[in-house]
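thoughts on these tokens:
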Amino acid sequence: MARGRKVNSNGERSKQLLLEKALELFSEKGYHETKISDIVKAAHVTQPTFYLYFESKDSLYNDLNTRFQRGFDEIMNKQSEEVEKGLEGFVRELKQKVHMLFVYIIENPKLTKIGLFESEQSLAVKSRLTQQFTHLIHRYDCAHIIQSYCVDQDIIVDSFVGSLERLILTNLLEHKKLPCELASDLVHLYFVREANYK
């Protein structure tokens, strides 16, 4: 927070406006094509005002990326109280997590573009996704079931995350499918086999 300014003051509104306008510009033009002068012009503030809140364009971009990751981590770290061991419990929780992630993405498409696709930290986000999904497999004691698919578990999880990423771009952000439908389709494609439910 800027020196001498109170929360909810004009200064805090200026900071929020800078973040909003930067998010729009980064999303439209990309990081490298967006200049600080573009951001301050769009926010109708002065360049010195920008430097009250951010050391550089980089620090503002990192702030936006951190906001995406906070929301992402909140979703991924939520766990069901009761764990019904086995594939059905795993599928239920995985669908729920993917659905919540898709809703978050729909509500924050520009932030997602930065945090999941463009920033240097996006690779770490995808790596955490694979770790979370692997953790779920073990939490629900499904490793032996996944092994019966005759494909290495890491290959399945990496493919699942790759498909998730692709479907966000081609279906979710294009509004071709609702978050709940897309989450269900994706989880069923990878983890529901007819033989398991007969």
Observations:
- Confidence is low (pLDDT under 50) at residues 1-8, 194-198.
- The radius of gyration is 20 Å.
- The chain is about 70% helix and 0% strand.
